[in-house]
Design brief:
Elements (H helix, E strand, L loop, with lengths): L12 H31 L4 H15 L5 H13 L9
Helix pairs in contact: 1-2, 2-3
């Protein structure tokens, strides 16, 4: 019993898929960059223990999850005033 669904791939399917995925990754990286820049401006000079809960909340708001060691590393950089840059390859 057939569903009546037919899928045809274009010759450029793989290229088109990569292009769409790259755009999505770029958009997500941009969201994280905005978050890091904002937190860096607001929390430079503050303690890691003060930054971590805010960073965890902002990270979750974007839709990601982060381990505690990573959270500590990023919070340390933010507190030190080191700019965190997201790069898409």
């Amino acid at each position: 019993m057939g569903s009546g669904f037919k899928f045809e791939m274009s010759r450029n399917f793989e290229r088109d898929l990569k292009k769409a995925a790259q755009g999505a990754v770029t958009d997500i990286a941009s969201e994280y960059q905005k978050m890091f820049d904002s937190l860096s401006r607001r929390y430079r000079g503050r303690s890691v223990s003060e930054i971590k809960p805010v960073l965890r909340r902002e990270w979750a708001r974007i839709g990601g999850s982060i381990s505690d060691p990573e959270l500590t590393d990023y919070a340390t950089l933010i507190g030190e005033g080191t700019r965190i840059q997201m790069r898409v390859k």
